[in-house]
Amino acid sequence: MSNFFFCSSLNLIDKNAWNNCIGNDHPFLQYEFLNGLEKSGSASIKTGWKPYHFIEKENEEIIAICPLYIKSHSFGEYIFDHSWADAYHRYGLNYYPKLQSAIPFTPVTGERIIINTKVKNKEEKEIEVLKNIILEAKKINVSSLHFNFIKNPSKWKKNKEIMIRSGIQFHWKNNDYKNFNQFLDTLSSRKRKIIKKERLCINNNDLKVELLNGDSIKEEHIKFFYDCYLDTTGRKWGSNYLSKNFFYELLINFKDQILLIMAFHNNNKIASAINFISKTHLYGRLWGAKYEIPFLHFELCYYQAIDYAIRNNIKIVEAGAQGEHKLQRGYVPTKTWSAHWIKDKEFSSAIESFLNKEGQLINDEKSKLDILLPYKN
Known about the structure:
It contains twelve helices and 15 strands.
């Protein structure tokens, strides 16, 4: 006999029980990553990310998980619903709080409802879990329920209350390249020349690049990376979502799934980019530099990531949200998906109409971007 509950802290859940249910090496679903966000205060009531995770157990073993948060704003999600919130408020209704299934501050596709491999009918259990989460959303004081960066949108459509939204990211795909030059050979001559010119930034500025993983990552490297992160977020967004303690938590508990790419000049740290690794994916997340060096961002965040993926037989590099400039560097436009449930029926109908129109615009945009791909064929 199984039972489910909603959990206010991962500290209440056994690490091994959580990870055993996850059953894969997707870094952002791992207990160490999500608990690091909570433990460091990065995802907390204070920051507007109140944990409310769905947990289902059978004979004391976790058989289903959905990371959930009660949100008091729409920041740190990368799927933008501010216009929905504005429309709610104009009609005198409260859009916040809302219930959100997402990896905080991380625009990466993955399972949002995770079923233990021991469950015989996985699809049936997923449908049941979604139904139970929607029932909970109807009971508590939330306007809506959102699942960001989902996989396999078709299976979500089986629930008639769910609406699907699409978006675009840029991912690099490894076609079994033997080395970086073989990848370059697949590009048009003009794009190949641009990349070769940009990669000269290392030699032209007398820089050295180091790739650090596991025990080779020291506290001094994390401290420098965080200083770079503060510089970048302060300059671009004016807010720092992730605390220094979060990255120190990762250094202690999660360093084997971190790839830290750093640039040095005369043994002085110049810039750094943090990535996370699975067997199939390299996820580029954050970067920063102490000095403005042309093309260094492209080198550390894109070209070094591609080179690492080729050498380690990694199939996909995901370099984060947005950024059409990734296109000419070999990253291809890739559809992303989210799933939404809106409590108010009138607003649900209006948003569904909006999503249908937006979905066509996304399809048109992707078609135009596909034409601009830098590959020869």
